[in-house]
Please model this.
Amino acid sequence: MAMASERYGQQQQQADYYTQPQQQSQAYGAAKAATAATVGGSLLLVSGLTLAVTVIGLAVVTPLFVIFSPVLVPAVAAAFLVAIGFLSSGGFALAAASVLSWMYQYMTGKKPPGAAQLEYAKGRIGTTAREVKDKAAEKFGSQQRTAAA
Model:
């Protein structure tokens, strides 16, 4: 009998062990759902309030925009052009500084990115120029000899 009661106790512990995580996971799932509903509801409320404030603000400000539009439209256009001008000049200055830095590195013997391609292009241009010069000398040299004869 003692063994039977021991076995029953072990079975009861195993049954408790297997049902306990399921109960915990149900409680955990319920907590997650409650949290999600709370956060979702709060965000929905905030977005609704934001929409309402935006509509009210637009209704209040629209007459002011209409009244001041002869001044505001040119002012916005001028501000846009000034901003574009500053951004362009900054971009051109950055490009110029980059080019000057690259040229300095190239002239001082450091190998900046693209130096190998530049050397290759210089070689190709020199070779092509020599070929054109030789062909021109050959063609015009033979014409001068025939004209002299």
Notes: The chain has two domains: 2-113, 115-149. Helices lie at 2-107, 115-148. The two ends are 139 Å apart (CA to CA). The chain has a mean pLDDT of 85.
